[in-house]
Write a structure and sequence with these properties.
Order of helices and strands: EHHEEHHE
Shape: globular
Strand content: 35-45%
Number of helices: 4
Distance between the termini: 5 Å
Number of domains: 1
Strand order of the largest sheet: 2-3-1-4
Radius of gyration: 13 Å
CATH architecture: 2-Layer Sandwich
CATH topology: Alpha-Beta Plaits
Length: 94
């Protein structure tokens, strides 16, 4: 199993627009439907208006690697280029 904690720091004032684009492009739902996906959830810290935490859980490395090849991951990558200032990733395997 693979667990990723991905902390995104957004550019100032664009959190709502970023989240709306994720919904509009079905990024979250399409990812949740992928084979091997166990969890894919975004969390919004109360104290910080610029950070968003993504928690991803995948059955194995193969499932995660296939996710990285998906069309919706490519779309998400384009959205991130526009809105994300910094990314911090913690990866755990079991």
């Amino acid at each position: 199993m693979i667990l990723l904690n991905v902390m995104y720091t957004l550019k100032s004032g664009c959190k709502d627009e970023f989240l709306e684009l994720l919904k509009k492009n079905n990024i979250i739902e399409d990812t949740r439907q992928e084979p091997g996906n166990i969890r894919y959830e975004f969390f919004l810290p109360i104290e910080d208006n610029h950070d968003i935490l993504l928690v991803e859980m995948w059955q194995d490395e193969n499932a995660f690697e296939e996710h990285l090849k998906s069309p919706h991951f490519e779309k998400f990558s384009q959205i991130k280029k526009q809105y994300i200032r910094d990314i911090n990733i913690e990866k755990f395997t079991k």
